[in-house]
Structure formats: structure tokens, C-alpha cells
Automatic annotation (TrEMBL):
UniProt source species: Paludibaculum fermentans
Signal peptide from the UniProt entry: none
GO biological process, one term: epigenetic regulation of gene expression
Domain Histone deacetylase per the UniProt entry, residue ranges: 19-290
Keywords: Hydrolase
Molecular function (Gene Ontology), one example: hydrolase activity
Protein name: Histone deacetylase
Highest taxon listed in the record's lineage: Bacteria
Pfam families, sorted: Hist_deacetyl
């Protein structure tokens, strides 16, 4: 049994069919974690959909209503880059509920891990780039509203800039956002995060890890957030179809350890979302996401968990 919970729902599969976003990966990750005896069925919690009231702490009532009713414009669907369906909307609402549940569990156990989520291109009033609801922002705002946290740090290690998250939290001193990404890549417009680490084409393990560690360690120690939200995209992988960086499997594992180690060392809980992953071989994407669970476990075993409130 894992010392921290995993959050999963069969409804996470957005049922896109033949699409570059392999949403079947969530089901495969869960199955492989069990098959390899990394986790058991008892380690998984089942989330509920985020409520309309929770979603509207981040998103405009108009955007939430459009998603529920299906009355998106042609331009809005083009911007989303995914086919609209009721199943798609349900999956995004579940992902937001899942990240919220993972964040709640992180406050208790030190780590809470959503086998889904990470939809960082969703803005308050529209969606972009496969992202309709910004689940990380919803989780942070709900916990702040409930006075469970005051501050949060979002560390976005997806290969693409977290433009929606940066926009949602712009000018908010209670949320520190870091995005480390391939600069010459989607999205074209990159509203500023608190810290943006723009990486050139083909950057590999050493440069990536040095720049991540320098910015992130400083932020965790200096900002001292009540919660870290980790956007753990596997798409910086060298064989990713939508990438542009050159991280190896070992480099991605060490990236994960940097994030978990620095937070747990400072007694800061971590909520994890998986975000993007588009490796040419689907099994590589599944393996890379599974290794993030392994990295979380290794950090937990090394540093343990004791909150400052204990």
C-alpha cells in the first residue's frame, strides 16, 4: 500500500478517438501501476465532478454554462482543438474534482496524486490547446476559499507554457507560478508567470535540471507556500511528438525528484497532475507517467512527511 493516495476515475478518458491526445493513457497508467505491484486497488480514490460553484471560482459563468449546454461557437471549438461532447465536459469536470481531491489529500499525507488533470491552457473565459477547465486553479481557489491554505506554488513542467494558469493568477501575490517550457512551441502568446524559464530547442537533462533546481528551490524556500501543485507533463521527453526538448527517461525522473524533494524537505505538501504526454509510442507515455509515481514514492521514503502543523 502506498503512503499517499492516487486519484482516478474511468471518466477521465475524454473519448477523443484517433486524436494526438491519448486520453486512454489514464486507464493504462492505473492498470500498469497495479500490474507492476506499485499500487493496489485500495490506493485509488474516486473523485466527484467539481461543482459549478467551485468551477466559477476560476471560470466565468458564461464559459461554464457554454460547456454544460454545448453552445460553444465554432471559433471556441477550434481554439479548444478537441471535439465537443458531453463526455468531454464530464471528463474535464471530473479532472477538476480529481485535482481538488488530490490537493486535499496532499494536505493530510504530504502527497496527493491525480492520475489526470494538468489542463493548464484553460483561461477564465475560454479553453485552448486540449484544455477546457483549469483544474489546478480550481483546486487552489477552493482550498483558499475554505481557508485550508493561504498560498500556493504552481510548478509547471509540461513542455508547453502554462498560459492559462499564468493568466488566472496574474497579479495575485498569494499564488507563485513557475513555468519551465520549450519557448519555440505552443502557445504563441505566453502571458508572464511569476517566473518563466524559456528553453531553447533540444535542451537536454543537464541544462534543464540546473535551471529548474535554481528557480524552484529558491521559490520553495523563499515563498514558503502552503501547497505545491506540480504539473508533471511527460512531454519534455526527447521522443515526444509535440515536444521540442530532449530529456531522457532518467532526466524526467530526476526532474520529478527535484520537485518532490525540495517540497518535502521544507514540509510543503505536493498535489500532482499529469498534464501532457504525446510520445511516439503510447507505452513510453504510460511508463514516464508511472515513473513520476515512483519518484514521489522515493522522495516520500527519503524525507517522510511531517507538516509544520504537526
Amino acid at each position: 500500500m502506498l503512503p499517499f493516495p492516487l486519484v482516478y476515475h474511468d471518466g477521465y478518458d475524454l473519448k477523443f478517438g484517433a486524436h494526438v491526445f491519448p486520453s486512454q493513457k489514464y486507464r493504462l497508467i492505473r492498470a500498469c501501476l497495479i500490474d507492476e505491484y506499485i499500487a493496489g486497488p485500495e490506493d485509488f480514490l474516486t473523485p466527484e465532478q467539481a461543482t459549478v460553484e467551485q468551477l466559477q471560482l476560476v471560470h466565468t459563468p458564461d464559459w461554464v454554462a457554454k460547456l454544460q449546454s454545448g453552445k460553444l461557437t465554432y471559433h471556441e471549438i477550434l481554439k479548444l482543438e478537441v471535439p465537443y461532447s458531453r463526455k468531454m465536459v464530464e471528463a474535464f469536470f471530473l479532472a477538476a474534482g480529481g485535482t481538488l481531491l488530490a490537493a486535499r489529500q496532499a494536505l493530510i499525507h504530504g502527497i496527493g496524486f491525480n492520475i489526470g488533470g494538468g489542463f493548464h491552457h484553460a483561461f477564465a473565459g475560454h479553453g485552448e490547446g486540449f484544455c477546457a477547465i483549469n483544474d489546478m486553479a480550481v483546486a487552489v481557489r477552493v482550498l483558499q476559499q475554505e481557508h485550508l491554505i493561504k498560498t500556493a506554488l504552481v510548478i509547471d513542467c509540461d513542455v508547453h507554457h502554462g498560459n492559462g494558469t499564468a493568466s488566472v493568477f496574474a497579479h495575485d501575490p498569494s499564488v507563485f507560478t513557475i513555468s519551465i517550457h520549450h519557448f519555440n512551441n505552443y502557445p504563441t502568446e505566453k502571458p508572464p508567470s511569476t517566473v518563466d524559464i524559456h528553453l531553447g530547442d533540444g535542451v537536454g537533462d543537464q541544462e534543464y535540471l540546473e535551471k529548474l533546481r535554481s528557480a524552484y528551490d529558491t521559490a520553495v524556500c523563499g515563498f514558503r507556500p502552503d501547497l505545491v501543485v506540480y504539473v508533471a507533463g511527460s512531454d519534455p521527453y526527447y521522443d515526444d511528438k509535440l515536444g521540442g526538448l530532449s530529456l531522457t527517461r532518467e532526466g524526467l525522473y530526476l526532474r520529478d525528484r527535484v520537485v518532490f524533494d525540495a517540497a518535502l524537505r521544507q514540509h510543503v505538501p505536493v498535489a500532482v497532475t499529469l498534464a501532457g504526454g504525446y510520445a511516439r509510442k503510447l507505452e513510453d507515455t504510460v511508463t514516464l507517467h508511472m515513473r513520476t509515481v515512483k519518484a514521489a514514492l522515493a522522495s516520500y521514503q527519503e524525507f517522510g512527511w511531517k507538516s509544520d502543523a504537526d
